[in-house]
Amino acid sequence: MTAHEAGAGATVPGAGRNEFGHIESRGIDFIPDHERRGRPRELFTVWAASNVNYLSIVVGGALTTLGLGARQGLTVLALGCTFWVLAAFLAVSGPSAGTPSYIITRSMFGIRGNRLLAGLTWLLYVMFEALNLSIAALAAFALLKFLGVTVALSVRLAIVVVLAVVTLGISVYGHRTIVRLSTGFALVVTAIGGMLLFFIVPRLNLQFVPPGAPHGAKLLGALFVGFTVIASGPLSWFGGADYARYLPRATPARSILLWSTLGAVVPAFIFGVIGVMAGTIVDMTDPQASFIAILPHWAYLLFLAVIVVGTTTSNIMTTYSSGLILQAAGMTASRSKTVLFDGVIAVAIASYALFISSFFTTLMNFLPLSVALFAPTMAIYVCDILLRRNRYDGLALNDESPGGPYWYSGGVNRPAFVAQGLGTIVALLCINTPVFVGPVSAALAGADLSALAGPGVAAAVYVCLWPRMAPAGRKRP
Fold first, then answer.
1. Is 238 exposed, middle or buried (0-12, 13-18, 19+ CB in 10 A)?
2. Which helix (DSSP H) or strand (DSSP E) does residue 388 occupy?
3. 88 and 232 Cβ atoms separated by less than 8 Å
């Protein structure tokens, strides 16, 4: 019996609550039809709110620090941002399944196998949360210092606590509250971003080429490294279904894809352009400090505010999805409790990085390696949606019993893990990060092909092994 046939009352006991200003009661469980509402266009601001942030400026500016000229940087930025289409495509599975992304992936990896994958993903997500919290806190420290406030240790601790409370508070309230607030967040930060463009565009030099720019094979290597840097953002975002699962089942997939793509691509590209253009004017190895040279004092204060608000908004999305992933990994607690647990861990890591050690730099060096895990997983997810024609049984996906349709062999779908493993291995062979350079990348003058080779191999293997999957797991509800 499919979820549709089961009807609205065939899920967990009691009605779920998902209203603005109230704590969302649902977690990874199936959302029945009578609790679904909303329109796909609301996904635009949800995605936009998580992408109008400082990180997009940083990765845009990183292209010039790699030695790329203005035209080269803008081209690489545009190509890398196309990967947001893949991330947005995952959102179409939300209304179909009525469950979060990391429950839908049970159809690919099996019940037990999916717990392992979700656990690994949660570790990476919590690191991203700590990184975002650290960036927001550093910007807040700089803002107060610029205003002449002495930023003592007690003040710094208070700032971290306030940022954490805001992030966790909104994440705990959940889906409807995030959707409602995302509109305001996106509008405010986008307006300030437009102000930054106003000061930067008149000074833009499209003919800019940094001193000592690479040529020949080294230039090709820098272009591919830059491409992977840009693509690593969308390749690490699996939360599309988390926010689309409350939409009515009959919501057109093309509308979900359109609004999600626009909400992701437009702000990521615009803020990336700000970073590239700023890189033609100032040294972008430290964007936060460099922008003071091209902005009036009042505008620089707004720029710091963008970092604080934008990064915090992005962190709210990450924390919300991370709490769901923790449930999918096997933590038997309500969504609000997993979010709080998740947040406490992230705050502890961020505090350690900010006040005790140089862990912040180490963390930033290691995170690029995450593309080796995330990119093949995303490729498998996209292929699964296409192979099943986006037909998922939300109730069956929540059936964890041995012998269930997604139990496969001992709770693991081996073909998917073969695809994942081979994709990850190939990605590592082709990757170029501050802490590890794969042999293929080294042989190609540092060219990083991990964002193309890893998911390409994973997709090809998954499609080839699809006929070998258990019939129950392959069937389209």
1. buried
2. none
3. no
Cα–Cα distance between 15 and 7 in angstroms, integer? 13
Task: Share the mean pLDDT of the chain.
Answer: 87
Beta carbons within 10 angstroms of residue 357's beta carbon: 10
Quick check: helix, strand or coil at residue 445?
A: coil
Residue 38 to residues 4, 242, 392, 395, 431, Cα–Cα distance (Å)? 19, 14, 20, 22, 41
For residue 330, the SS3 value is: coil
**Do the beta carbons of residue 121 and residue 325 sit within 8 Å?**
yes
**Domain made up of 38-357: CATH architecture:** Orthogonal Bundle (1.10)
Q: For 19-74, how does the pLDDT look when each residue is reduced to its tens digit (9 = 90+)?
A: 887 888 888 999 999 999 889 999 999 898 888 778 888 888 889 888 898 899 99
- Asked whether the beta carbons of 312 and 166 are under 8 A apart, the reply is yes
The pLDDT value recorded for residue 470 is 67
In tens, the pLDDT along 302-344 reads 889 888 988 898 899 999 999 999 999 988 888 989 999 998 9
Is residue 259 within 8 A of residue 109, CB to CB? The reply is no
Taken as a whole, the chain contains a residue count of 477
pLDDT tens-place string over residues 140-175 = 999 999 888 988 989 999 999 999 999 999 999 988
CB atoms within 10 A of CB 194: 11
Task: Tell me the pTM.
Answer: 0.89
Distance from chain centroid for Cα 17: 26
